[in-house]
Design a protein that fits this description.
By secondary structure, the protein is α/β, with parallel strands linked by helices. It has one domain: Vaccinia Virus protein VP39 (Rossmann fold, 3-Layer(aba) Sandwich), CATH 3.40.50. It contains eight helices and eleven strands. A seven-stranded mixed beta sheet has the order 3-2-1-4-5-9-8, sandwiched between helices. Strand 1, helix 3 and strand 2 form a beta-alpha-beta unit. Helix 2 crosses helix 5. The protein is globular, with a radius of gyration of 18 Å. It starts with 18 loop residues before the first helix and ends in a 6-residue tail after the last strand. It binds S-adenosylmethionine (SAM). The site of S-adenosylmethionine has 19 residues, from loops.
């Protein structure tokens, strides 16, 4: 009997990320789920004074411009950290030549929800710096706010690696710094177009709470319903998260609990584990 090997982040060829197909499937038009994510994220940035955040992070930015646009009023410098050569090329072109017209409905919605945003999307993107690199390049305590959209759960099948990814995301902000994230809910490994299978780790709300509650304060998780206008990725919706990195950190409470694996509706495995926060 054969065994299925768990695919880790380094097992996928991120340089070959299918930008055109990914954009066509997800971001060439404003989908209902984007409206939900933008409303959620805009509420966070709206509470920040214009230019009130010295430096923010978009971790695994990919070719998605709307999280960068949303940060444009509050943040004086936005680091779009991204390892994939294909995504870096796309991001640089968008910043150099101005965003594709297809991003305008996204920007119109962002601006309607945050009057602090400038008239043009190109102007909102001016604070963005494209930074080649991975989660492993993050220096703890660097940012006032870190944002991550559809990344930690969409880049590995290994729940332990997912946990370490989220841990580095939390530690990237200074103590008291803000965290903002979106996760595909219960999404198994997935295809974009007819391309290869990309590794993913199905997570649900209890799994996110198990990872983030010991590492953060003010944890809030909400949900956007499954979007039937997207291709079938096997997800059950989107989970949205806000939290802060604690001002002071407690030492780990005890030994790591063994992960438990349950079967989600649709048959995908959802793993829940409790791991203590790593100290910086
Ligand atoms: C599903 S895409 C999400 C892209 C984008 N954030 C969005 O909202 O559509 C996952 C992204 O994570 C990036 N990624 C993969 N491994 C990474 C790593 N080790 N560190 C940071 N980003 C990574 C990929 O290149 C890709 O851009």
């Amino acid at each position: 009997m054969g065994t299925t090997r768990v695919r880790r982040n380094r097992d996928a060829d991120w340089d070959a990320w299918p930008v055109t197909d990914y954009l066509a499937e997800n971001y060439r038009r404003l989908h209902p789920c984007d409206i939900g994510v933008i409303h959620h994220h805009a509420a966070v940035y709206r509470r920040c004074a214009p230019g009130g955040l010295a430096r923010t992070l978009e971790l695994g930015a990919g070719p998605n411009l709307y999280p960068l646009m949303l940060a444009g009023a509050a943040s004086r410098r936005i680091d779009a950290l991204e390892p994939s050569a294909a995504n870096l090329r796309y991001l640089r072109r968008q910043l150099d030549r101005g965003p594709d017209d297809s991003w305008e409905p996204f920007y119109a919605l962002c601006r309607s929800l945050d009057p602090g945003l400038p008239e043009s999307s190109a102007e909102a993107l001016r604070p963005v710096r494209v930074v080649p690199g991975t989660v492993d390049d993050l220096v703890p305590g660097t940012y006032d706010l870190a944002s991550m959209n559809f990344v930690a759960e969409s880049v590995t099948e290994d729940f332990g690696e997912f946990t370490l990814f989220c841990d580095a995301f939390v530690r990237a902000v200074r103590p008291g710094g803000r965290l903002l994230a979106a996760f595909m809910e219960r999404m198994p490994s997935y295809r974009i177009g007819a391309g290869p299978v990309w590794p993913a780790c199905p997570v649900d709300e209890p799994a996110l709470r198990a990872v983030f509650a010991p590492r953060t304060t003010g944890l809030r998780i909400s949900r956007v319903a499954k979007d039937l206008t997207l291709p079938e990725y096997g997800d059950t919706g989107i989970l949205l998260l806000t939290a802060e990195r604690p001002l002071t950190e407690e030492p780990p409470a005890g030994p790591v609990a063994a992960p438990t694996t349950t079967t989600a509706p649709g048959g995908s495995r959802v793993t829940t584990a409790v791991a203590p926060p790593r100290r910086t």
